[in-house]
Write a structure and sequence with these properties.
The protein is mainly alpha-helical. It has a domain of about 55 residues. The chain is built from three helices and no strands. It is elongated. The relative contact order is 0.06.
Length: about 80
């Protein structure tokens, strides 16, 4: 595990410590969990965008320059 140093206003840190204590956790754990979520969400978002772009390219290749019709869009 790596260490990280951040600068936070004293009052903000004090309030964060009080809230973490009320929730039975620590500021360190809150920040660590946030960063895990943040890093994971970014990776998931990038993957979803890439998947959509690939799907779009495959669809264009199959349909050529033809435009979507209402029936195509609502076909089940």
């Amino acid at each position: 595990m790596a260490n990280l140093t951040i600068v936070i206003e004293g009052d903000t840190l004090k309030r964060a410590r009080m809230r973490a204590l009320e929730e039975g956790t620590s500021v360190n754990a809150v920040v660590r969990d946030y960063l895990v979520d943040y890093a994971g969400m970014k990776a998931q978002k990038e993957k979803a965008i890439n998947d959509l772009l690939r799907l779009s390219q495959r669809t264009k290749a199959r349909r050529g320059n033809r435009r979507w019709t209402r029936e195509d869009l609502y076909e089940r």
